[in-house]
User: What shape does this take?
Amino acid sequence: MSRGSEELTNSRKNEIIDAFEELYQTKSFRNISMREIGEKTSMTRTSIYNYFQNKEEIFLALIAREFQSWCVVLQKIANHDNMTLHEFAEAVAASLHERRYFLKLISWNHYELEENSRTERLAEVQQVTYNAINILLLCLDKFFPSINNTVKKEFQHSFFIFLYGIDSYTSNSNSQKKALEYSGIPYYPVQVHNAVYTFISHYLKQEV
Assistant: This one.
């Protein structure tokens, strides 16, 4: 593929992703149609299928793009010469506090997306997730060399399990709040920044 055709392909993919994202701001995933996505692009609906076979693949591409955006910030953290545990936890917490939309996206039921998506589309998300993992591990190696590899791997797995579920604890809808009130269950709002900072600092404080 020539550079020009690659740039055109990426441009059209991003146009499709942008159209989906605009619709997703006001509609649920299940209520978005490929016809509506096509209407918001300069392409015909049939042309969209040259890049994505369905809306599930577009959703995955949006997740991959948001993941890549977070990786850019993580790399900036990794580029520091040195960081204390407080500084590292604060930096990662701030990077995610500014990405509530990203956290919402990755909390979606991935089984539903994966069931209808091609392997190469799934691989794109896996690759960018792997990149984020490696940057975080690079930070641990660089800033906290005393931490052994077993703890680093445990942190990696625990942090990403935490990451994929954090939205449900930090973003309660009005319906959820009413249900809690109806059930007599107290509602204690949790901030993304505080949750991430606490997780990292508490998990690693005994190892640093």
Notes: The mean pLDDT is 93. The chain has eleven helices and no strands. Residues 170 and 190 are 5 Å apart (CA to CA). The radius of gyration is 19 Å.
